[in-house]
Amino acid sequence: MGWVLLGLSFLVTAFPSNAAAQAFCALRDPHSAIVELFPEATTHRSMVRRLGPGEQTELRRRFSEDLPNYEFGEHTVYAVFRDSEPLGVVHVRSEKGTWGLLEIAWALDLDLRLLSFRLQRGYEAGASDLLAGPFPDRIAGLGLEQFSREKALGLDSALLVDLPAEQKVFAATLVQAAPRAIAATRVGWQSDLAELRALAESEAGQGESD
Questions:
Q1: How many CB atoms lie within 10 A of CB 146?
Q2: Which domain does 99 fall in, by range?
Q3: Are 88 and 115 in contact (CB under 8 A)?
Q4: Strand segments (E) across 65-99
Q5: Is the Cβ–Cβ distance between 73 and 49 less than 8 Å?
Q6: Which spans in the chain are helix H?
Q7: From its phi and psi, is residue 88 left (phi > 0), alpha (psi between -120 and 50) or beta?
Q8: What is the pLDDT of residues 88-111, one digit of tens each?
Q9: How many domains does the chain have?
Q10: What is the pTM of this model?
Q11: Interatomic CA distance for residues 135 and 143, integer angstroms
């Protein structure tokens, strides 16, 4: 594990706790939220970064993603661990809903594929039924490219086609929001993700040698 563990160890926070750095759009109850999204989690650490015009330019250039102005500033991504093994990350993003701003917590694996999500704040018609139905499992495992293709189709996306009318608007909002969340995580936390992947490989290698 070597240098990777040395770089990470002082930042890891054991449960139960709140993250020390609470930036804009952070998890409101990190312990319960992370355990809900990652049932195997035992620890987490907060990674605060600032997204600004430079990140906006890169997102637009690389991923055709354009963050609204209210998404600039400091944001927190939470690295989630089972003991010392990285499981993934959680990134809370704002999204414009029908009745105001929504806050959505996205749980991503280390390759930034969607594992699950949680509506942290806001109200949308049909949200409860949508979250209790097959839709969350339907989009689990999708990455940036798949989400971007479905986003371009709008309400004609195969992810939405058989949903009841009262659930479609919120589902479409999620399909629009997911690639922005993934792309922003990739651009803003590149070095952190590289460290986490290196640690995961080191942990896997050590497990094979035991």
A1: 16
A2: 2-209
A3: yes
A4: 73-82, 85-97
A5: no
A6: 2-8, 30-37, 53-63, 127-132, 135-139, 144-153, 165-188, 190-209
A7: left
A8: 999 999 888 888 889 999 999 999
A9: 1
A10: 0.84
A11: 15
